[in-house]
Amino acid sequence: MAPMAGVADSAFRQVCKDFGADVVYSEMASVAALCYNPKKTLELLEFSEKERPYVVQLFGSEAKQFAEAARIVTKEINPDGIDINFGCPVKKVAKQGAGAVLMRDKKKSREIIISTIENTELPVSIKTRAQVDTIDALEFLDYMHDLDIKALMIHGRTLAQGFSGDINFDIIKKARDYFGGIIMANGGINSLDDGIQVLKKTRADGLGIARGALGCPWIFQELKNIKKENKIPEKIFEIALRHAELAESLKGQQGIIEIRKHLCWYVHGIIGASEMRRELINVSSLNEIKNIFNSFGFVV
Ligand SMILES: Cc1cc2nc3c(=O)[nH]c(=O)nc-3n(C[C@H](O)[C@H](O)[C@H](O)COP(=O)(O)O)c2cc1C
């Protein structure tokens, strides 16, 4: 499961793990925050043992802060790996010189990767874009070829494309000539068929799935079994409720507020979904969620 800030918290990661996701990533965590005011960020990075292998993703722009953050995360969180974000296009992140814009500055990116590797015994991976301005992932990887980077997830879109548009399968395929570690193809995998096609076109070792898992965490099961799951609404609601229960147990009332958007994704494609969404977007308890499903004629 690819990292998703604001969405892929411990509850959702556990649900995805139950459906067969091999590796889950944390929401991206700021290295500056970890250095100067770590309490909230360390809370964000908490996880359950059943999520392992669990990778913490860091974002930032200063090599020194990556060094300190790598030490803190290794000691306080003890995940199974640390990933560095070279792919985020969001303005708030880009303004700090972090995320995808870092790919423009290979030297600085290299220092960041080295600082991270030197300050943890955990495997270090990177997540990149296919291209940022004139620098493509191949040139970027070539510049890092001697570094001990264990895995790479490439979002096959340029920074300019943001989150939509065609995926550059060719560049993901060619990455194999520049990188010896595990390669995961990412972007636009929203179904079993998409996953099969992407693996065929890229020959990647694995797939990174983000939005395709929203409201559909069984996409991992489909890919593992190479078999489509036709879930009836009752089954979907059962999964949604289990997810909501987990969210509440981990985050209390805040968990219920945050689950609202997931509930809206879960009902996608079900008859009566738009009316149901109007109610689900306001729920404030597990009972309310159950009552809404029941009032639409589904027994959960
Ligand atoms: C809500 C949301 C939050 C995201 N947060 C992160 C993040 O924290 N770190 C990161 O590297 N990518 C993040 N991404 C990008 C995804 O990991 C992924 O690269 C992108 O969505 C393309 O994959 P998809 O087509 O499967 O969604 C985020 C994407 C979404 C939609």
In short:
The chain is α/β, with parallel strands linked by helices and about 300 residues long. It contains 14 helices and nine strands.
Give an overview in words.
With 300 residues, this protein is α/β, with parallel strands linked by helices. Helices cover 45% and strands 14% of the residues. The protein is built from 14 helices and nine strands. Strands 1, 2, 3, 4, 5, 6, 7, 8 and 9 form a nine-stranded mixed sheet that branches. The longest helix is centred in the last third of the chain and has 19 residues, at 233-251. It is globular. The model has no long low-confidence stretch (mean pLDDT 97). The structure holds flavin mononucleotide. Flavin mononucleotide (FMN) binds next to loops.
Task: Name a few traits of the molecule.
14 helices; binds flavin mononucleotide; Non-ribosomal Peptide Synthetase Peptidyl Carrier Protein, Chain A; 9-stranded mixed beta sheet; TIM Barrel; alpha/beta; 9 strands; 300 residues; globular; 2 domains
| Number of DSSP strand runs | 9
Helices, by number, come to: 14
Ligand species: flavin mononucleotide
CATH superfamily placement of the largest domain: Aldolase class I
Number of domains: 2
Global geometry:
globular
Distance between the termini: 28 Å
- At the fold tier of CATH, the topology name of the largest domain is TIM Barrel
Strand content bin: 5-15%
Along the chain, the helix and strand elements come as: HEEHHEHEHHEEHEHEHEHHHHH
